[in-house]
Amino acid sequence: MPTIEPEEHKSLREAVAALGKRHGRDFNREQLWSEAAKLGYLGVNLPEEYGGGGGGIAELSIVLEELGAAGCPLLMMVVSPAICGTVIARFGTEAQKQEWLPALADGTRTMAFGITEPDAGSNSHRITTTAHRDGADWLLTGRKVFISGVDIADATLIVGRTEDARTGRLKPCLFIVPRDAEGFTRRQMDMELQAAEKQFELALDDVRLPAEALVGDEDAGLLQLFAGLNPERIMTAAFAIGMGRYALSQAITYARDRTVWNTPIGAHQAIAHPLAQAHIDLELARLMMQKAAHLYDAGDDVAAGEAANMAKYAAGEACVKAVDQAVHTLGGNGLTREFGLASLITAARVARIAPVSREMILNYVSHQTLGLPKSY
To answer: How far apart are the first and last CA of the chain?
Structure first.
């Protein structure tokens, strides 16, 4: 896929693509994570003074996209360096930066992110996980669901709510909760989707945290939260685009070689045109993802919010269509383990659902961009 990127981004793509090709679809997550870390790819977005590459979400999204295009995406990149690393780099104390950023950059430590709750759905204002002061400490109580990779993470960045002393209203705050904190328990959720990163339900029962567990300003509220959610959407787009590219490449190779009558099936427009459309949709999604990453890295959080949501929407739709067409192109072979496409049927749906549904993105665009009234 041709790009309009600067040479350093093209070089990064080529290098990561070569790494992904060496590992392939049957990759070992721990081995790939370790090698990507040693090559500096996991922390490419983190500040140089803390062991990172000094780049931004633009560079990190390239890494995830190219690994996905090779069939070996690392889902925890969306969470550990993108969300948690970004939030700590922007709002953490110096002690938090020293403790976490070098380890996140070199892959020796990972961090999960906990925001979703059973009853809140996409409404972050209904989060019921609350934190209140107890002397110099915090006590955190609540539940979270669909939290990725908690079993392999050293800590989880939990979104809770504290009471504003002036208004009495609850406002979001972020806390670093170590995996072995007393009162912090997890239960693996039974998912049809089989992936290296498992999903968990978390319970926080008066988890006592020191004052320094709070990330950033107690009164910053949504600013700090969305500093992590915009990169999450951009990286989810990268994840989806990479997955779609992998599926499309498998279908193209098959369509070129598979001959049923006198010509390869790819010569027939009923096969060729849907694949061409899938390619176009993936390219358009990538352009929006690049725009979102550029705006975010430039510090324009408002414009980045709109573009990140659009990128995630476009990439999710393009991914589902690409995977579906790829499987359809291969016919029965598309459901075999040999070609590695069947598992993507379920995985592709994730890009439409998480971390925010396409319907909520349409709500965001209709309200925030078009200025239309809300129905809720």
So the answer is: 41
